[in-house]
Amino acid sequence: MPDSKPAIFDRFARWIERQVGSPFSFAVAIAAVVIWAVTGPLFGWSDTWQLVINTGTTIVTFLMVFLIQSTQSRDTRALHLKLDELIRVNEQARNSLLNLEDLSEAEIEQVKKTFDRIVRREQPKPDQEKTAELAH
Hints:
Layout: H1 8-20, H2 23-38, H3 47-89, H4 105-122, H5 126-135
């Protein structure tokens, strides 16, 4: 039986996601850039001074890509499960749409074309719109 507690990485990724998505974290990032820019004359705009911001931002960006991907993948899987449940319990819904995300691109495009045709059929024709407006 799998452990019901999220894995350490998942908990850590969610915590980091909440922290870096806060206004405080944004303010800290802005402050770091301002401090770096203000110290430019102090270091004579040296290559090392430029390397500090380049290296720092590259490392943070590199690590954040993995954390963002992890949390977004988890959110997407949870959202798909919720939608699958809504489709499953709705008698008018097409159960063939369950697990739609597992189809190939060509199959998804075919489903999209089917829905495009349905939408076009259900849209009132210009004459029908005028008749409906006059009826009100």
